[in-house]
Design brief:
The structure is a single chain. It is built from 14 helices and no strands. The chain has about 375 residues and is mainly α. The chain has a single domain, classed as Amino acid/polyamine transporter I. α3 runs antiparallel to α10. It is globular and about 60 Å long. The two termini are about 25 Å apart.
Length: about 375
């Protein structure tokens, strides 16, 4: 890992991990606003913001611990990471991760279908299939292709969200202010919403392990991990603030983003925003599939002595995506988010976050103490 990071730029060392982490978690529910409506809106305007800040702190803390542990053990894929952390218990995480991948890819497929239908009036399956082909295309070419996708889609995403906020405050800024000033009681606990949202998304920190090869030192890991939380939550805070203009009714919308865009009545920007969401779905889905490809590639190399080919990566991606997105077409976006994500939050707390912050941190401290004792 030290050699790989020797010629890495400051962007690759400090910002790329955060952009990659954001890429994995933004997905179908975050980018469309559906997750924000599910986990933050019930806590009210201020409670929702507090929950987001709590999620950000959890993400940064766990990212720092994850990046340090991965660097210390030379782990560039989730199998290596959890073998070092849990020993033979790594299979428990892999089972949970496979459930996660199936669920989120189904969510992404459902969101792409909703977006395609909203833009073109075509059947939902067309948008789902378009996303499937795009993810498979990027996943087949490995790390370099995936990192470029994370970089350029991130620039697009932050730019479009900035314009979204400008237009929202221009068109209905008074309603946003009134929403934050309202005394409507919250219907859910803000802390629980923040912890739940952070818990099932935090798996993104191990999904992006391949990009950590650019880190040069423990300091790089700490800085990159600390930055990852704010980079990931900023677009959500901006989006949530705009949603408050139509609180609480917007919570019932399948695509809150599309609802807000219709209120703005800016057709060209409406199209640009929907294309940005599709790009966000693409980078999130590609990140999830790439993690599985990297895990299989390591096993393939150990067993066969050869690298996993681009054709094999493409085939794995197509099989996985076809299963997941057909599931999406049958179940739908709202049901997938409401029913599946809370189960994932509990799973990842038990098999990832708690072991990392106890066993993992203890091992890092012992390792640090041992290094200091060496003359």
């Amino acid at each position: 890992m030290h050699i790989a990071g020797a010629s890495s730029s400051w962007f690759q060392r400090y910002l790329l991990p955060g952009f990659a982490f954001k890429a994995v978690i933004i997905g179908g529910g975050y980018a469309t606003g559906r997750e924000l409506a599910e986990f933050f809106l019930p806590a009210g305007p201020w409670g929702g913001l507090a929950a987001m800040l709590l999620a950000m702190l959890i993400w940064s803390l766990v990212c720092i611990a994850t990046f340090l542990f991965a660097r210390a053990h030379g782990a560039r894929d989730y199998l290596s990471f959890f073998y070092a952390l849990l020993g033979r218990g790594w299979v428990v995480f892999e089972a949970a991760y496979l459930v996660f991948v199936v669920l989120i890819l189904a969510v992404f497929g459902a969101a792409a279908g909703e977006i395609g239908a909203a833009l073109t009036g075509l059947p939902h399956l067309i948008g789902t299939l378009a996303l499937l082909v795009a993810i498979a295309g990027f996943a087949m070419f490995g790390n370099a292709s995936v990192e470029r996708l994370f970089k350029y889609v991130s620039f697009l995403l932050y730019g479009v969200y900035f314009l979204f906020v400008v237009f929202a405050f221009t068109r209905f800024g008074e309603r946003i202010a009134a929403g934050f000033a309202s005394d409507m009681p919250a219907t859910a606990n803000w802390a629980l919403g923040g912890i739940t949202y952070a818990s099932y998304n935090i798996v993104g920190a191990v999904v992006i392990l391949p990009v950590l090869r650019h880190l040069r030192s423990a300091r790089d890991a700490i800085v990159a991990g600390a930055i990852a939380g704010p980079l990931a939550i900023l677009p959500a805070i901006l989006f949530f603030t705009c949603m408050i203009a139509f609180y609480p009714a917007i919570g019932a919308e399948t695509l809150p983003s599309d609802f807000l865009l219709r209120q703005m009545n800016l057709p060209l920007f409406h199209l640009l925003f929907q294309l940005m969401i599709f790009a966000a779905l693409l980078e999130s889905g590609t990140g999830a599939v790439h993690a599985i490809n990297e895990r299989i590639a390591k096993t393939w190399l150990a067993a066969r002595g050869t690298a996993l080919s681009a054709r094999a990566r493409l085939l794995i991606a197509l099989i996985l995506l076809t299963i997941c997105m057909l599931l999406a077409d049958r179940i739908g976006l709202v049901t997938l988010i409401a029913k599946g994500y809370r189960l994932l939050a509990m799973l990842f707390l038990l098999v990832y976050v708690l072991p990392l912050l106890t066993l993992g941190v203890a091992r890092l401290r012992r390792r640090s103490a041992t290094i200091e004792e060496i003359p």
